[in-house]
Amino acid sequence: MTGNPKGGFLRQPYGFVQFTARVPSGSGLWSTLSTLPAKVSWPPETDIASVLGSEPGSARYCYHPIGTRHVVQVSSSAAGNRSKGWHTFAVNWESGSITWYTDGRQAYRYLGVPPDVPMYLLADLVVENVYGSGPTSSGLSVPSLAIKNVKVYQSPVR
Length: 158
Prior knowledge:
The protein is mostly beta strands.
């Protein structure tokens, strides 16, 4: 699932984006829910959630700032296996901060300069050698990143 990179889902900077998704488990699978620049450049990038199929109990929340290849990242592993059932991943993107949520609980807050450019949404399931863990054929059915809903609220122009 992707927004239109040419026009962008978020035509103005700042807002709240929420995905309800069921992520797959399994070696070599990597689910990402992200915002990327509408001008199709990189960085910035905000990963609303990134879940490795080999570590479904841990979500990574990342921000790749403009002008650097560095990443602001935190991992959360307290929520149990995210491949079991539906989970809600969200980000609140404001002037001066980005706040990540999983299942309604704040997971991380970045204080600093967030992207102030229009962004589009991307929901992606990568199947490859991810962090040294490649896909295997044993017990692997057709993996899918299931999206139940996406909610986007734009902040008023200030």
